[in-house]
Amino acid sequence: MKLYRCLALGSVLGLSLILAQTPAISQAPAASAASKSAKTAPSAADIANAKAKGLVWANLNTKIYHYSTDSTYGTTKNGKFMTEADAKAAGYRAAKTGGAKKPAASPASK
Description:
The chain is 42% helix and 12% strand. The chain is α+β, with helices and mostly antiparallel strands and 110 residues long.
C-alpha cells in the first residue's frame, strides 16, 4: 500500500515539475486581440467608396447588414463592408428598420 502511495505522490510531483518548466504565455496575443476589438469606424472616404460599389455594412456582433440608405451604415466599430450575397451566405440578415434597399427601376408603362 505504501508503494502505491509513493508512486502516486511521485507522479503528482513529477507532473508539477513539468508544468513549472513550461514557458509562461506571453501577453502579446492578448494585446493583439485587444487592439483588434478596438477597431475604429470606417472613414467617410471608405463609406463613400463602399456606397459607390453597392456594398452593405455587416455588423459582426449582431449578424445584421445595413444598406447604404440606413442611418447606421458604416457607423458600428465591429463591422465590415461586403456584398449582399456574401452577407447572406455568411448567415447575416437585413436590418428590419432604417434604410431600405433602393427599389428597382420599373419599366415605363405605355
